[in-house]
Structures are given as structure tokens and as C-alpha cells.
Design goal:
This protein is an alpha+beta fold. It is built from seven helices and twelve strands. It has a single domain, classed as Beta Barrel (OB fold (Dihydrolipoamide Acetyltransferase, E2P)). Helices cover 35% and strands 24% of the residues. The longest helix has 29 residues.
Amino acid sequence: MSILFVLLMFLLILTISYFRGRKELPAAVATRSAKPAAVSAAPTRRELGFEIPEGYAFHPGHTWTSNEGHENARVGIDGFAANLLGKVEQVEVIGLNRWVRQGQKLISIKGNGTEVEMLSPVEGVVVAVNSDAVKDPSLIARDPYKEGWVCVVKSPEMATNWKNLVQGVMVAPWMQNNLARLNSMTARMNPALAQDGGSPINGLLSRMTPELRSEVVKEFFLS
């Protein structure tokens, strides 16, 4: 009986330690530096007029994520959004150690008198913010897939989240479809702004009427 009691107590201690460790994870995460981590240049391919980085997955609201290992997901905005926005003057993230769900507001971007809220491509805790991009927001539009990344999210459910994202051979057709829809909407304002291929005209969002701008933001940024 005493041996059984000891074994039960040992199992109880292990269980308590396990759950205590899980609860303390966010606190440990909060101590991580918000300085930008080194970014390796992702190979890109040009398809249907778009630069597509290999290994990235895209949220329908035009944010991207890449798997950095150890459940870390680097996040930024894609080239379509960068061109549509054009000039980026300020970027804000919901905050370090904040939990965000996939599809919830993560990033606020201001430029050319317009503020756009961007959605998180993954669920998890924000563990790092690109301080270089905060100091020089133009990086986000100038180099969206490398130096212009915005934040890192610790995402234990990353593999599940990726199933809801656009990736692989579907990225270029999806981008092309977005451009076709954008052209259809802008044609009502000025047919000269429509394009047959490639990314949106740089800074196109700021050249729209307030009504059309609001419509475009809802349609492509889902916010």
C-alpha cells in the first residue's frame, strides 16, 4: 500500500509540474527581445507577374507567414497589399505577449491618410516585433518578404492553421484573381488604373474616393 501511495504522489507531482509549465510559457515568452531576428532570403519565383516567395503561406486578408522552427511563425504583409498601400508611415502590432487568434486583428498600418487593419495568419502569442520596421515603416512596403517582416508569433497550432491558408501552386492564381477583382472595382472610378497583370499600381488605395477605398479595404483586407 505504501508503494502504491508513493507512486500516486509521484504521478501527481509530475502532473502539477506539467500544467504549471504550460501556464508559465507566456510569461517566459514575454522576456524575449523584440529586436529583429536574422532573416534568411527566401527563394522567390516569378509567376503570372507576381514575385512568390517559396515556403510562405498567405492569409486571404493579405498577410503572410513563414515557419521559423520551434513553433515560431514570422508574419508580414504580402506584395499585393504593399503595392496597394504604397507609402507606409506607421505600423503598430497588438503588443508583445498578446494572444491572437487566426483571422483576428494583428497589425495596423497607416499611410497616405489611410489606416488599414491586417489580420493574423496564425494563432498564438506575439513574441517579437521588428523594431527596424517600427523605426522605418517604409521597409514594410519596400521589402515585404524579407527585411519588412512585422512580427513573430509563437504558434503551437501552426500546422493546423496552415491548412486554412493559400500556399504552393495556388498562390499565383489567387493573386491574379485578386488583381482581376480589384481592376473590376477600380474601373468604376478610373479605367486607366486597371492592369492586365502584375501587382496593383503603387499607392492605388490613396487615389480612390473614400467610398471606394472603404469598399476595397473590406474586400481585400477583410477588416
